[in-house]
Each structure stands twice: as structure tokens, then as C-alpha cells.
Design brief:
Blueprint lengths: L1 E2 H8 L3 H9 L7 E2 L5 E3 L1 H15 L4 H9 L5 H30 L13 H13 L1 H8 L2 H13 L1 H12 L2 H13 L1 H16 L2 H13 L9 H11 L9 E3 L4 H11 L1 H10 L4 H15 L5 E3 L2
Antiparallel strand pairs: 1-3, 2-3, 4-5
Helix pairs in contact: 6-8, 6-10, 9-10, 12-13, 13-16, 14-16
Length: about 300
């Protein structure tokens, strides 16, 4: 028998981690003394070796626990799935290393193909496999969802560019999209809220507020009048009507920058309302959001 400290030294795993494995039922000690000390036998240590192998292969602890507890668990399929994921990560790292090499040699142009969305694509594939009924309910067919995945594959670089702009990193975008998938039914139900929002007249109210805002762009964007209009626009919905989604930590920066710096948006806004309106709205938003910082889990119509 070995003490928990001896096992920690032997395996390189901290004592606290071994205690945590015990707490979640992943690795129980062979014996606990009357004084509360954990003791591990050779079988326990062999089990720990298997756990560490799966961790090295980047299996989540919940999956490792399922593998260890269920002798009928399809380890071969799990290993194959993880192998595919690791290969995708390896390919991504190779692309990033190649990018670094080119940048070191003075190359300044950078496409976004290096920032691939393979993990996100795999999350979509996994979601399709495990949530067929929901997909059939909201998409009509799995073929329609397959087409959605195909579009994501075909536009991977442009999506990655947007992900970096709004979230800072592709990984954060992927995490946000995974979180969104985990609330798929809830998000789809949010679409039904959109109709209720229209019925409540929120869309028309928003149009009225925009007309008030753009009626005279010579006004001071810091004035109470303008800031009140901006506040009403950003808080138009009641709490219960507000669909939520994580738009990324850079969302508001991109929102503000779009009005004074995006040529297409400037042209469209100026044509629809009047010259200079896009810059006016951008400055008004900038002042409002500077005074009242907002969470990136923005509620939108």
C-alpha cells in the first residue's frame, strides 16, 4: 500500500488532484485508515495510469469516468473519435507554426485559413448525431443541418476572421458556439419570441427611435436627449423577451467602429437617412457604452 503523497510523487499528480478524483468517484483509494488517510494498492495505481493516459489524449474527466465505470463502453469508438480530434488539433498547430515561420521571415500578409474551425465543425457533427429529434423538429431534416455544416466548411476562413475580430480568438468563438448548441432548443424557442416582439410593437418603436436619433445630426451626442434615445434603443425589450447569446468580448468595439469606419455601412446609412448619420450614431453609442459598460452576452432583437 502507498500513501496519497507517495502516489503523488510516483505519478506526478498533485495530492489535491488525487483527492478530487476520489471525491468525484473517478479513483477511489483501496483503503481509508481510521485516521482518514487514503491508501492505494497496485490495482489503484494501474487505474490511475489508465486515467492519465486518457487525460493525455485530452478526454474530458466525465468521459474517462464513463469509460472506467462501464465495461461495455465502446472504448474503440471513443479512441477513434479522440484520434480524429487530436489529428485536427495537430494539423492546426502545424498551420500556426508555418504561419509563425512566414511571419519571422518578414511576410506581412496573413489569411485566416490558419485559424481553422475544425473543433467547431466537429461539435456540429456531434450535435447532429446526438440530437436528431431536435434537428428534425426545428430544421425539418438532417439534410438541412448537413447543408448548414457544409456552408461552415466552405466559408471556414471568413468565419474564422469574423471570430477573431469579435471574440479575440477562434477558441473563444468555438466555446461560445458550443455553449449555444448546448441550449439549442432554448435558442430556437427564442425565434418564437421574435414574433411576440413584433406583436408588441418593439420593431416599430425601434424605427421611431432611429428616426428621432437621425432627425438632426448636428446635436451634441453627449446631450441627455441623444443619450436617452440610445438608452431606449439598447434596452427596448422587457427582460422576459430578451433572447441572449454570447457575441464575443469585442462585440461593442466592432459595433461602434462599424458606424464611423465601415464604408458599406456608412454609405447605406447616409443614403437612407442623411450624410454624416453613421458617424453620429457611432459617437453616440461610444459615449453611452463608455458610461455604461455592457456585458458581451448582449440581448438583441
Amino acid at each position: 500500500m502507498r500513501t496519497i503523497k507517495e502516489v503523488a510523487v510516483l505519478s506526478g499528480v498533485s495530492v489535491r488532484t488525487l483527492q478530487y478524483y476520489d471525491e468525484i468517484g473517478l479513483l477511489k483509494p483501496a483503503k481509508v485508515t481510521g485516521a482518514g488517510y487514503r491508501l492505494y494498492d497496485e490495482e489503484s495505481i494501474n487505474t490511475l495510469q489508465q486515467i492519465l493516459l486518457f487525460k493525455e489524449l485530452e478526454f474530458p474527466l466525465k468521459d474517462i469516468k464513463r469509460i472506467m465505470e462501464n465495461p461495455n463502453f465502446n472504448k474503440k469508438e471513443a479512441l477513434s473519435r479522440q484520434k480524429t480530434l487530436l489529428k485536427a488539433k495537430r494539423d492546426r498547430l502545424n498551420r500556426l507554426l508555418d504561419l509563425i515561420g512566414r511571419l519571422e521571415q518578414g511576410e506581412t500578409y496573413m489569411s485566416f485559413k490558419e485559424f481553422d474551425l475544425s473543433e467547431y465543425i466537429q461539435a456540429l457533427e456531434k450535435f447532429k448525431k446526438e440530437n436528431t429529434e431536435e434537428i428534425m423538429k426545428y430544421w425539418g431534416s438532417t439534410a438541412a443541418f448537413d447543408e448548414f455544416i457544409k456552408v461552415a466548411r466552405d466559408h471556414e476562413s471568413s468565419i474564422a476572421q469574423t471570430a477573431v475580430e469579435y471574440y479575440g480568438r477562434v477558441e473563444k468563438y468555438t466555446d461560445a458556439m458550443k455553449e449555444s448548441l448546448s441550449h439549442f432548443s432554448e435558442n430556437m424557442e427564442n425565434m418564437e419570441k421574435m414574433q411576440k416582439i413584433k406583436e408588441k410593437g418593439c420593431v416599430e418603436k425601434n424605427k421611431d427611435l432611429i428616426e428621432q436619433l437621425t432627425s438632426n445630426v448636428s446635436r451634441d451626442v453627449k446631450s441627455d436627449e441623444i443619450q436617452n434615445i440610445i438608452g431606449q434603443m439598447l434596452n427596448l425589450l422587457d427582460e422576459e423577451d430578451q433572447p441572449t447569446m454570447d457575441l464575443g468580448e469585442n462585440y461593442y468595439d466592432k459595433l461602434i467602429d462599424g458606424y464611423p469606419y465601415n464604408p458599406k455601412l456608412i454609405e447605406a446609412m447616409d443614403q437612407q437617412y442623411c450624410k454624416g448619420v453613421s458617424k453620429f450614431i457611432g459617437e453616440a453609442l461610444q459615449y453611452y457604452l463608455k458610461k455604461k459598460p455592457c456585458n458581451s452576452k448582449f440581448r438583441i432583437i
